[in-house]
Design goal:
The complex is a heterodimer of chains A (354) and B (252).
Chain A (H helix, E strand, L loop, with lengths): L1 H4 L7 H9 L1 H18 L9 H9 L7 H39 L12 H14 L4 H25 L4 H26 L5 H9 L8 H20 L1 H8 L2 H6 L4 H23 L5 H13 L3 H25 L7 H20 L6
Helix pairs in contact in A: 3-5, 3-15, 4-5, 5-10, 5-11, 5-13, 5-14, 5-15, 6-7, 6-8, 6-9, 6-13, 7-8, 7-13, 10-13, 10-15, 11-13, 11-15, 14-15, 14-16, 15-16
Chain B lengths: L4 E11 L2 E12 L3 E5 L6 H8 L7 E6 L2 E2 L5 H5 L2 E4 L11 H6 L3 H4 L7 H13 L15 H14 L4 E4 L8 H16 L3 E6 L2 H7 L2 E6 L2 E6 L1 H4 L2 H8 L3 H8 L3
Helix pairs in contact in B: 5-6
Classes of the chains: A mainly alpha (354), B alpha/beta (252).
């Protein structure tokens, strides 16, 4: 809204500065910087300036020593690029769907796990590992079971008439409990030498398990989902006011809620199949974005997506540089997330219901 | 496009086997400030929700300018009739200006772009209620009276000429109640139509052009304040005898 108010006026220096401080400029710049940094940071040292040079050389526009170019291409393109791309996609998808969940449930503590998608996906992946499915099969099972868990919770909610939001939360709780129990069964019967460690490792989240082909295959779906969530911004604002108000403002509340939840569930199920369980991003990042930009979802969702991508890039760099062995990223996001959440909690609480 | 009248004709509504509304004929239009009185559980809120198209009556019909609501799109309806909910607490710290601007949603649609005209409409709505100074405040930090005014401003930004208010004075102190009534009277003078439910017969008498009393799911009486607010109606509405209370207040 603020953008549309600014009519054609000469750009004074102060105005220009304000333009540049606009999140629509700063956040994409910060994201691009984070991507470059994440590509250049790691066990194999290189200067950040070498990355643009490498791309330039690969395009044939500049020259570079052939050996150096081969080494750099191997490290940057084959090893780091898939996980950097995965970090961006997963971070953006989790954070934007978290913001959407919070608006739909009118609750700042909602996160993508609320309806059981993570519990279902965990069960699906564990089942795939125990059945000895190839990696693609494990990912597919995780995705399908994530959707199945949400569908199960939604069906329970649909069986009972009345307050749809409360019933959805209860349905999600039941579904989460069911799929957690199923996961326990699978863990119990898993071979403790070969399979159980794989399951445990997968549940901790890992961005390095997909190759570039898999990432590029899922990228359009995830980006499409995130863009669609961004487009729902005003609708989510109206839903956050309550069903009666949304409907009296001309919005089909039930259909909109269904659409937003379907989109958010779809992208979060994809994140689980791409990188396993990564907690906290979907809960914290929207709070940080809300602190900076206010509650309006037209800004909050795209900003959350970019902040989530930056957050996960930082977490991934830490995960692979801080120790000799790579730490599963789910552990890093939880350890990073707690201080971040504590830092914003004091200011965030202001907006909550007493 | 501007509507003149929102009407319920022979509207009935059951909840389970209990009849909440029993053949209600009721309506209001522009230039009127109508208070709907009724005890707790008399069916005021149900009637309001039916008039707003949020609830479908089991029999009877609701019309806007003679057109049944089912034939009107939600967005078209929203540009004529606005719902002002009881002042509530939003879960997120929206600015007051953002909340008011949401009133433009029926006009621009879910995905349409809010333009300079929409920003002006929101601004004008804030100015009309003299709450421009609240525009940048967090809605969550406003007082109950201020929140209620923001909700009315959103209805004005909607461009609707008929406003339906659900107990706008609930939770407000005496001064804020009267100030709110003053705002509503001014809107009616400017050609808006206002329907509100209320639990305050004395204030309804003060401000309304018309009062309707809902007793046991029927409109018991409907007319100018002086005709409706008789001891007899008060007794039917609230089950008390006003004369008795007045007498008991007299010194010994």
């Amino acid at each position: 809204m603020t953008a549309s108010v600014s009519m054609a006026a000469p750009l004074s220096p102060a105005r220009l500065l304000r333009r540049l401080a606009d999140w629509r400029i700063t956040l994409p710049l910060a994201l691009a910087g984070s991507v470059l940094a994440a590509l250049s940071l790691g066990k194999f040292a290189m200067a950040p300036g070498e990355i643009p040079k490498l791309f330039c050389a690969m395009a044939g526009a500049c020259t570079m020593a052939p050996e150096r170019m081969a080494t750099l291409a191997n490290v940057v393109i084959d090893i780091r690029l898939p996980r950097v791309a995965a970090a961006v996609l997963v971070g953006a998808a989790l954070a934007s769907s978290g913001a959407a969940f919070q608006a739909v449930f009118r609750n700042p503590l909602a996160s993508p796990s609320l309806l059981g998608v993570l519990a279902g996906a965990s069960f699906g992946a564990a089942l795939g590992i125990v059945l000895g499915a190839p990696w693609g099969g494990v990912q597919a099972l995780a995705f399908v079971m994530g959707l199945a868990a949400v569908a199960f919770g939604g069906t329970i909610a649909a069986l009972f008439r009345g307050a749809p939001v409360v019933m959805l939360v209860l349905g999600g709780m039941i579904s989460t409990a069911l799929f957690a129990a199923l996961l326990s069964i699978v863990k119990f019967v898993a071979d403790p030498v070969n399979q159980l460690p794989n399951i445990v490792y997968w549940l901790m989240g890992n961005l390095g398990q997909s190759d570039l082909a898999q990432v590029t295959a899922l990228a359009p779906l995830m980006l499409g989902g995130v863009v669609a969530l961004c487009a729902l911004g005003r609708g989510l604002d109206l839903l956050a006011m309550g069903d009666d108000e949304a409907r009296s403002l001309g919005v089909p509340a039930s259909a909109l809620r269904f659409g937003a939840l379907a989109l958010a569930t779809f992208v979060s199920a994809l994140t689980v199949s791409l990188a396993g369980m990564i907690g906290w991003v979907g809960l914290i990042v929207p709070h940080v974005a809300r602190l900076a930009l206010g509650a309006g979802n037209s800004r909050l969702i795209p900003a959350s997506a970019m902040l989530g991508a930056i957050f996960l890039l930082a977490a991934d760099v830490l995960a692979r540089t801080v120790a000799d062995v790579e730490i599963p990223i789910g552990i890093v996001t939880e350890l990073l997330g707690i201080p971040v959440f504590l830092a914003v909690l004091g200011r965030v609480r202001r907006g909550w219901n007493e | 496009m501007n509507s003149e009248r929102l009407c319920a004709d022979a509207v009935a509504f059951w909840r389970g086997s209990r009849k909440i509304l029993d053949g209600v004929d009721f309506g209001f239009g522009r230039g009127e400030l109508v208070s709907l009185l009724g005890g707790n559980g008399a069916g005021k809120t149900t009637l309001l929700r039916i008039l707003l198209g949020l609830l479908a009556p089991h029999s009877g019909v609701v019309t806007l300018d003679g057109v049944p609501l089912q034939q009107l799109g939600r967005r078209a309806y929203a540009q004529d009739v606005a719902y002002v909910p009881q002042s509530h607490v939003a879960p997120f710290p929206y600015r007051a200006r953002e909340i008011v601007a949401l009133g433009r949603a029926p006009a621009v649609g879910l995905f349409g772009r809010m333009g300079a005209r929409d920003a002006e409409a929101a601004e004008a709505a804030l100015a009309m209620l003299r709450i421009g100074h609240l525009a940048e405040r967090d809605y969550t930090t406003l007082s109950g009276g201020e929140r209620q005014l923001v909700m009315i401003a959103r209805a004005l930004a909607q461009g609707a000429k008929l406003l339906v208010l659900d107990e706008p004075m609930a939770g407000l102190d005496y001064g804020h109640q009267l100030r709110l009534l003053g705002h509503l009277q001014r809107l009616v003078d400017e050609g808006f139509g206002v329907l509100m439910t209320t639990h305050h017969p004395d204030q309804a008498r003060l401000a309304s052009t018309r009062i309707a009393a809902l007793v046991e799911g029927r409109i018991a009486c409907d007319g100018p304040p002086g005709e409706v607010l008789t001891p007899h109606t008060i007794r039917r509405l609230y089950g008390i005898d006003p004369m008795m209370i007045l007498q008991s207040e007299r010194p010994g």
